Amino acid sequence: MEAEKAKTEHTFEKVARDWHTSRLPEWQPVTARNTLNRLELDIFPVLGNQPIADITHQQIIDVLKTIEARAAETARRLKSTLGRIFSYAVQRGIIKHNPIPDLIDVLNKVNKQHFAAIKPEELPAFLKALDGNRERLFIPTRIAVNLMMLTFVRTSELIEAEWSEIDLDNGIWIIPWQRMKMGRRKINPDTTDHRIDLPKQAIELLNELKTITGNSRYLFPGQRDHSKHMSNNTILMALKRMGYKGKMTGHGFRTLAASALEEIGYRREVIDRQLAHKERNKIQAAYFRAEFIKERKELLQAWADYIDSLRTGKVIPIRGQAA
C-alpha cells in the first residue's frame, strides 16, 4: 500500500520540478528558465501526471518524435534533459532504470559539419583495430590517436602540444589561448587558456611518450625534423592504416565523445566547455569557466574508464549526471 502511494506521488512532473530546483544553484537564470519552459510546453502536458515509474520507452519515443517533427534541435535537447531527470530519479531510489540510454537512435542525427566519425556502438570494433595495429603504428602516433580519443581535443591542439604545457604531477594540461581555435581569430580573440584534467589513462600514455620525446619541445615532433611538430596528416594516415579511411577523422573523436556522453546524460554545457566550443556571451563564458572544472574532470575520467572497459570486454556503463 505504501509503495503504491509513493508511486502515485512521484509523478513525472513532481520529480522533474524537484530535479530542476536541485540544479538552480548551479545554473544561470536563463538556463533554468529555458529548461523549465521546454518541459512545461512539450513534456508535462503529455507525461506530467503519470507516475515516473510507469513511463514506457514507447511513450518517450512518441513524445520526442512529435517534437522532432516541429523542431529537431529542441527534441535533442529535451531528450538530454529527460535523461538527467530519470538519472535523478534513479539516484533517489524512485525508479530502478533510466530508459533514455536505451534510445540512442530514436532521433535523426543532426550533422552540422561533415567530418567522418564512427558511432558510439562502433567504438569496440575501432578499439580492436587500433590495438590490432599496435606493431604497425609508430609509437608516438599510436599514443597520439589514443590521446585524441581520451581528451577529444582538436587535431592541431594535440600535434602542436609542447611539454611545457603538461603538468604530469598534477595531471593537468593547459593549452594556451593562442593555440585555441577561438584564440587565433584576428578580431576579438578569446584569451582563455583551455584546461584539461587528464584521466589516469592519459597520464600513463604521456609518461610512456616522455621516454621517447621528452627531450623535444613538442610531444609529437616530426620524424625527420624534430624542431617541428607532427604533420596534420599523421592521424589520418594512421586511421587509414587501421582501415578507417573515410570512416573516421581526428575531428571525429570530438563528435564521437560528444554524442556518447550526451546520450547517457551529461549536461551539454559541460560537454561543450570541455570541447572548448564558443560560448554565446561573456557572462556565459565566465560562468562556464568558474563552474564546470569538477564536472569536466569527472566526465573525462568516466569516458576513459568506459573505453578501458570496452577493451577488456567487461563493459561498465558511464554514470551520467543527475544534473
TrEMBL record:
Annotated keywords: DNA integration, DNA recombination, DNA-binding
GO molecular function list: DNA binding
Domain of life: Bacteria
GO biological processes: DNA integration; DNA recombination
Core-binding (CB) domain: residues covered: 10-90
InterPro entries associated with the record: CB (IPR044068), DNA_brk_join_enz (IPR011010), Integrase-like_cat_sf (IPR013762), Integrase_catalytic (IPR002104), Integrase_recombinase_N (IPR010998), Phage_int_M (IPR053876), Phage_Integrase (IPR050808)
Pfam family, one: Phage_int_M
Residue ranges of every copy of the Tyr recombinase domain listed in the record: 113-301
Family classification: Belongs to the 'phage' integrase family.
Record PANTHER family: PROPHAGE INTEGRASE, PROPHAGE INTEGRASE INTS-RELATED
Protein name: Site-specific integrase
